[in-house]
Amino acid sequence: MKAKFIYILFLSLVMATSIQAQEQTLSTVQEAFLPYETGQSTQYRSASGEPGEAYWQNEADYTIDTQLYPDEHKIETSITIDYTNNSPQSLKFLWLQLDQDLFEEHSWGAKLTPLGGGRFGNPGFEGGIEINKVRILHNGETYEPKTHTVDTNLKLNLREAIKAEGGEIQISIDYSFKVPEEGSDRLGRLDTKNGIIYEIAQWYPRMAVYDDIKGWNVMPYLGAGEFYMEYGTFNYSITAPAKYVVVASGELQNPGDVLTKKQQQRMEEARNSDERVYIIKKNEVGKKESRPRGKDRLTWKYKMENTRDVAWAASKAFVWDAARINLPNGDKSMAMSVYPKEVAGDSAWGRSTEYVKGSIEFYSDYLMPYPYANAINVAGTVGGMEYPGIVFCSWQAKGAGLWGVTDHEFGHEWFPMIVGSNEREHAWMDEGFNTFINSLSTANFNNGEYHNPRNARFLNNWLTSKNTEPIMTAPDQIQEGNFGRVSYYKPALGLQILRESIVGEELFDEAINAYVDRWAYKHPTPDDFFNTLEDVTGRELDWFWRGWFEKTWTMDQAVDKVAYMKEDPSKGAFIRIKNNGKLVMPVKMEITQENGKTEMVELPVHTWHRGNKWIVKYNSTSPIKKVVIDPNKEFPDVKPDNNTWKPDSAEKKSKEKN
After folding, report:
1. Which is nearest to 232 in space by CA: 151, 161, 170?
2. pLDDT (tens digit, 9 = 90+) per residue, 571-612?
């Protein structure tokens, strides 16, 4: 028996040698598998990906009173910020963000706008915030602080530091600004047949985030990098001409003052209807009876809790419809849409509320329940932009395009509105996550009405081009034309690969739900996400974070050669595979024999631990007709031509060598 075993072992070794197994470098430690640093545990953040026992973040509550003057396209506002310092450090000064200063002609963002213009530039508009007064109330003393403006950031020097671990201060600011027509595709105004549609965002001085990672986060607002904000409660009012309808983040507090009795009744009907109910019908737009009578201006009061931002829209041109959103555990919210008459048909914005409802209900089931009273879709000049409880989408969008932008912007309610990552540094943590969940939502909506799945190779041309950039590139540094691929598509594809081809759907879904649960209304970093995924799935993924997120490596797996034991296919085969690129992935290989048998062989990523070649022993019973690596195109293999081996192709290669 022992002699037979030695003989079989000898034959195996001889066979392996016949296909140059000696080339396999057993001592190689590839760069892909070196440890990838994702942070050690501190009292604030655990290496498991959870917030630490002493995790903290500061709070900012806002009381805002604003006036809209359409004749001048002007907004005048008084704001009070109640700020709580929960950090372990006392704060001798404060930083606020003045995002509207992007539209000041001398802003850094204006100076960095390409000569031909760009999505995030706004050349020629003389805007920016005009501050009339700043006051501080601290420890019973009221005073005007010394201030410094650094592009879109405002520094307030304090007479006395705010105490650590609970110290409080109140800031009051009176200011005004003009609303640009084109607001870097984040706000602006649109002329329609029945009036201007104002979409208002980044409209108030906001507290910069002070955190345990960087202290004060004061990266300037240059246009491409979005936002990073503290959470709190907003009580705010918007006063506009009585003809105007104002929709906003949060819940309307005084419907009796700003809606007619009929509109209030319709709102209650919509609150209990899965079908669209019109609050203002198309034929009612601009009619006197569609607005309360007796006043020239009306004040709309809104409130929103546990949110990092608020935005609003106003117009006398709105058609307005709504329907119930069904949330887990029997809870409800409201889907709403406002849009001009020109796009009210069911081939366009007439289906918007259906889209909002479908999107919010899916994400509420997949991730966590939607936390806000309303989800409002506004048709206007902005192509697509998200804020808590309200999004701005292009009034020209229709069909699949309107579904896509609506679903994408409302997906942002989870990333980054609930999971509050730093968009100004890590665009992929909101755009990439969101693009990924959008694919799941689209597959689910209306039996896949707009579903158009793509395999993992759709980015291959870009991945192999000189223009490729790492996912971890800061958004303001991403080269022109690359933003969508770097921040949206490549990270989304990475999450798809993890879910479908590496971790598995069940474990991945557990991990992403744990990430949302751990970091809801908090400030996660990339390391917190990476660590959570590894913690919950039990997978060591350093090779993936490095190769896909940090580097621009590409994958090229190949079938190199097939040989048979004693040249007899019935006694088994040896298949040599190669990894020609620096990016490593697991191996999925489909083997078809001449007897008709087809089998899938799967190898873990650890196959490449010892080098770029590996020999697979396969128990064939007849000649092998074909071997295909990644037959379902689950991985971004950039050279698919060498993924397939056939006897005729092998003979051809041999003749070419000779």
Report:
1. 170
2. 999 999 999 999 999 999 999 999 999 999 999 999 999 899
